[in-house]
Amino acid sequence: MAPRSTVTDEPDTVVPLTASSETIRPAPGTSTSNWVYEGQFPGPELRVQEGDVLSVELTNDLQAETTIHWHGVPVPNPVDGVPNVTQDPVAPGETFTYTFRAEPAGTYFYHSHVGLQLDRGLLGPLIVEERDPHVEYDREYVVIVDDYLPGEPELPSDGAMGGSGGSGGVGGGGMMGDIRPPYGGLLLNGRLPENPQTFGVTEGERVRFRFVNAGSATVFGVRIAGHEMTVTHTDGRPVEPVSVDSFVFGAGERYDAVVEATNPGTWTVQADALDGNEPPARAVVEYESSDGGSPQRPSPATNRLQYRNLRSVSSLDGVSGEPDRTFDLTLSRGRSQSYTWTIDGQAYPDADPLQIRSGEHVRIRMINQSPVVHPMHLHGHFFQVGNAIKDTVIVPGHRGRVAIDFHADNPGRWLFHCHNLYHLDAGMARVVRYVE
Ligand SMILES: [Cu+2]
Question: Where in this chain does the record put each Plastocyanin-like domain (predicted)?
Answer without folding.
Answer: 20-131, 180-288, 328-433
